[in-house]
Amino acid sequence: MSVDRVLLVSNMPSNDGPVGTTRSNHEVSWLAPAEKGESSTNSADNEPLFKNPFSIEDLQVFDDATMQRMLGSSGFGLTLEDVAWSLHGASKPLVRRVSHNVSTEQRAHFQQELKRALRPDEVKAARQRVLDRLFWELTYWKMPNLYEELTEGEQLHPGIFQRLAPDIRGKIVLDAGAGSGRASLECLRKGAKLVYAVEPSPGLLHILEQKIGSQPACSRIVPYQGRFDHIPLGDDSVDLSLSCSAFTAEPEQGGEPGLAELKRVTKAGGKIVFIWPRSEDYSWLVAHGFHYVSLPIHQEMTVHFRSLQSAIRCARLFYAHNKAVLRHLLKTRKPEVPFSVLGFNPPRDYCWITVDKGQNSRFVPDL
User: Fold this and answer.
1) pTM of the model
2) Alpha-carbon dihedral of residues 135, 137, 139, 143, nearest 10 degrees?
3) Phi, psi (degrees; rounded to nearest 5) at 264
4) Cα separations (Å) of 103 from 94, 108, 109, 141, 244?
5) For residues 287 and 180, what is the distance between their CA atoms, to the nearest angstrom?
6) Per-residue model confidence (pLDDT) at position 215
């Protein structure tokens, strides 16, 4: 029997691991993907599960707004010293861009760290820390197609959208942190009148736009670039707001300002739903009155990759330090991996609240 109750921490399943989109489960270690910050690490040696292919010059891919958010948010796990040290020997255009996006209050200290005399090994270590912390953001922006390969096989428990169908059918829905459209497309299948798909990553948004262009039925999906703390919709615009493996308690991936924005755009009596939430966010969800639904599984859930080649490619990059994943693929020669081998709980749960406009829906930061 499924469970539907106000969140109780003692009853929450463990969801530690490297997945989510959004990623929030994938980012569990580095965006707060750590994780969306998060614990996508090898418990034996605290190594990240992924193999990082990025260089410091890849930071150029981010737009100024994203760079400012990264530099100004502790949730990304970056320190001003590490960022400055990682730029020793970097190209002048990159140094200028990062310096320009450092806050005025921090700029003098940042310039001081840029000029600090460092050994090569100190620069290398700082770069590794910065790139590991930004691994998932860099993946979304630089390798969205590969991220799509990773997540497209993470099929949600079919009961999730079956349970949500009455709130979707004939309604206007917001999919916040939409990624390449996994939840948006499912909302269409359940009869949504219109779906606003809001996603910050241009690469993932482009993949979604390609899907919309190739399928006439997808014309009811309206893509927008935006963030949890700045949703480009008016007040009371939607009947239902949801986020699939993307929203977290961290301010840069939702948090208080993001929840306030979701309440602002959702009509009174409508619902806000977070699908496949992170375990480290359970106490935050408890404090905000969310109800929890966990659906039964009768056989082990697996990730189904598009091909064995794709599965091996993703395993070597995203699960490089979880050797069991590659061993499983090479042994079975099938493009699928059980969630138990990956090391985290399957996407079988969600949380929800009903919007009460009697409460202040706008986030007021502490002074």
Assistant:
1) 0.80
2) -150
3) -60, -45
4) 16, 10, 10, 23, 32
5) 31
6) 81
**Pick from 11, 15, 13, 6: nearest CA to 245:** 15
Question: Are 7 and 292 within 8 A, CB to CB?
Answer: yes
Q: Which two tokens stand for residue 11?
A: 């009853």
pLDDT for 47 equals 58
- The CATH architecture that domain 151-354 belongs to is 3-Layer(aba) Sandwich (3.40)
Other C-beta atoms lying within 10 Å of the C-beta of residue 232: 12
At 310, list the tokens.
């794709």
How is domain 55-133 classified at the architecture level of CATH?
A: Orthogonal Bundle (1.10)
Look at residue 30 and tell me whether its pLDDT is greater than 50.
no
DSSP secondary structure string for all residues of 176-199? ET-TTTHHHHHHHHTT-SEEEEEE
Could you state, in order of their start, the residue ranges of all structural domains in the chain? 55-133, 151-354
Instruction: State in Å, rounded, how far the first CA of the chain is from the last one.
Output: 46
**In the predicted structure, residue 20 carries a pLDDT above the cut 60:** no
Residues in the chain: 367
Average pLDDT, the chain: 85
Cα separation of 138 and 53, whole Å?
10
Q: Compute the half-sphere exposure of residue 278: CA atoms within 13 Å on the CB side of its CA.
A: 35
CB 215 within 8 A of CB 192: no
Strand partners, 337: 303
Residues with Cβ < 8 Å from 30, sequence gap 6 or more?
A: 37, 38, 40, 48, 76, 77, 132, 133, 134, 135, 136
Give the pLDDT confidence score for residue 48 in this predicted structure: 66
